[in-house]
From TrEMBL:
Name assigned to this protein: Polar amino acid transport system substrate-binding protein
Organism: Streptomyces clavifer
Keywords, sorted A to Z: Signal
Ranges where the Solute-binding protein family 3/N-terminal domain occurs: 54-277
InterPro entries from the UniProt entry: Ectoine_EhuB, Solute-binding_3/MltF_N, TAT_signal, TAT_signal_bac_arc
SUPFAM superfamilies: Periplasmic binding protein-like II
Coiled coil: none
Length: 300
């Protein structure tokens, strides 16, 4: 299983515009869009996948988004994608491990068909690949000591209580805390998720701010803590949803669109969505709003 340093790395990358995975090889995108939209006989990408009986997916071994446990590919993205491709007539996922910054270049080079890694949808990435509609959003939560002695619910309650809040070094949560009016002296920087959990348990901070997804996963191995209900923070008056989705090769619009039709059936069914993904810390609060569209996210 992926360790928590990998989870920390995912925490930086899924919310940062200055990330890897955006490498463009001259001529690569054009070549792929010409050859992968369909074969000369008109056969489309989905038809080819159905005929071969499997879809090649890339993962970055970052729990709980996509990781290998023993010989089994697990996590949010593989679980959701397995369900969708089965509905499309493709029964097997064949995994390929990739470094995070190689996911999109490898996709465009034809090494695999789909990125199944819970990748955040950003304008920079949209310029180099095709994204599905959002599979999830990443609302924020607080990890606190068992019993939640300060009765914290969100950043406004943390500010009112005058507590010390921990955030990951370089991650976006620091700006959320500052934007909520928490004084600089009450914001403590930590290097990785387990440091945050240890600081909560040791009383060095009162709360650790991170996505609810990551904190619920972290809480599994830190039983003296609990995680508040997730909430969507605001920054400069805008809600920060941090959505992620599947990624497809440029030119595979038909495959992406077929995927989206099945994805919509799942995200529109709360009990089905939660039943599939709650094992990985995804609940009803991670279901993307129907109004949140990839086309808008790609515009920035």
């Amino acid at each position: 299983m992926a360790d928590f340093p990998n989870l920390s790395r995912r925490g930086f990358l899924n919310r940062s515009a200055a990330v890897g995975g955006l490498l463009v090889v001259p001529g690569l995108l054009t070549a792929c869009s010409k050859t992968d939209a369909g074969a000369a006989n008109g056969e489309g990408a989905l038809d080819k996948l159905r005929k071969q009986g499997f879809v090649r997916v890339a993962y970055a071994n970052e729990a709980p988004y996509g990781y290998l446990e023993g010989k089994e590919l697990k996590g949010e993205a593989p679980t959701l994608h397995r369900e969708i491709f089965k509905a499309l007539g493709v029964d097997e996922l064949k995994p390929t491990l990739s470094e995070w910054d190689g996911l999109i270049p490898g996709l465009q080079a034809g090494k695999y068909d789909v990125v199944s890694a819970g990748m955040a949808i950003t304008p920079e990435r949209c310029a180099n690949a095709l994204f599905s509609e959002p599979e999830f959003i990443s609302p924020t939560a607080l990890m606190v000591r068992k019993g939640n002695p300060e009765k914290l619910t969100d950043l406004a309650s943390a500010k009112a209580a005058g507590v010390t809040v921990g955030v990951m070094s370089g991650a976006v949560e620091g700006s959320y805390a500052e934007g909520a009016g928490i004084p600089e002296g009450k914001i403590k920087t930590l290097q990785k998720p387990q440091d945050g959990a240890d600081a909560v348990k040791g009383g060095r901070i009162d709360a650790f701010l991170l996505t609810g997804i990551s904190l619920r996963w972290l809480a599994k191995t830190n039983p003296d803590t609990e995680v508040t209900e997730a909430f969507v923070p605001e920054l400069d008056g805008k809600q920060q949803f941090s959505p992620g989705g599947a990624v497809f090769r440029t030119g595979n619009e038909d495959l992406r669109d077929s995927f989206n039709r099945e994805l919509k059936k799942i995200v529109s069914d709360r009990s089905r969505y939660v039943g599939l993904l709650e094992e990985y810390g995804f609940g009803a609060t991670e279901i993307p709003p129907a109004t949140l569209k990839t086309a808008d996210l790609c515009k920035g």
